[in-house]
Amino acid sequence: FITAATKTKQHKHIHIPPLSSIDWLILGILSSVALPLLLLYSHIPSHFFQDEFISAYTSYMLPAISNLDWFAAYPGWWVSQFPVLFFILQKPFFLLFGPTVDAIRISVWPYYLGTLVYLYVLALRFFSRRVAIFSSFACVFLAANLYLWSTGVHFISSTFFYIAFLYHLLMLLRYERPIDLWATGIILGLSY
After folding, report:
1. Is residue 98 pLDDT above 60, yes or no?
2. CA 114, 141, 155: angle at the middle one, nearest 5?
3. Cβ distance 118 to 164 under 8 Å?
4. Phi, psi of 82, deg, nearest 5
5. Which residues pair with 74 in a beta bridge?
6. Per-chain mean pLDDT for the chain
7. Percentage of the chain surpassing pLDDT 90?
8. Is 186 helix (H, G, I), strand (E, B) or coil?
9. Residue 108 and residue 153: Cα distance in Å, rounded?
């Protein structure tokens, strides 16, 4: 990746237009509907997933960053071994909201919103705005997504990294832009 990204190729400058204000409005509306739905589902008393509490405990008890072995699975027991980056990014939510179920579940919302944005942009760039709206709408209202994404399970972050990787890989294959090569490599490195 590094060698290919630093090679200079003679390509025409490819301009990919940024998202329009209509696209941002659509994403804003979808997000403003999705987050209250997730919050509503997350407050159903019988709605929990054991893994979210195991990983939350691990994040909450995370030692200082200087004491972590960055290249080992964390923690040492197999039940919740996940790359340490997830636990590092989840811990600030406990510091902000306290050790609560809401903190666990809100801690994955950035991944959820990122997945929603990447899904929309992926469908927009490779298909059409209509497909982007439909796929994002399905992502927000699909029962399986509402169930799983209203919990604080760690694989929601894996979904985000996967769709971000897929988007930049497809953009790389289509346009051969160095920025997509770098993004693909970095996101692949962050994937778990």
Report:
1. yes
2. 45
3. yes
4. -150, 155
5. 82
6. 85
7. 49
8. helix
9. 8
CB-CB neighbours of 14 under 10 Å: 10
Q: How far apart are CA 57 and CA 91, in angstroms?
A: 10
Burial annotation 126-137 (CB, 10 A radius, 16+ → b, else e):
eeeeeebbebbe
Tokens coding 84? 């340490």
One-letter amino acid of 92:
P
Confidence of residue 77 (pLDDT cuts 50, 70, 90): low
User: What mean pLDDT is predicted for residues 89-97?
Assistant: 92
The CA-atom distances, in angstroms, between 150 and each of 32, 57, 110 are 15, 18, 12
Predicted confidence band at 73 (pLDDT cuts at 50, 70, 90)?
A: low
From the CA atom positions of the chain, what is the Rg in Å?
19
The whole-angstrom distance between residue 149's C-alpha and the CA centroid of its chain comes to: 11
Q: What is the pLDDT of residues 24-36, one digit of tens each?
A: 999 999 999 999 9
Distance CA 105, CA 176 (A): 38
Which tokens hold the place of 52?
A: 């979210």
pLDDT of residue 59: 84
Tokens of 9: 């190729």
Tokens at 25, concatenated? 């409005």
Single out the residue of 175, 172, 148 nearest to residue 159, CA to CA: 148
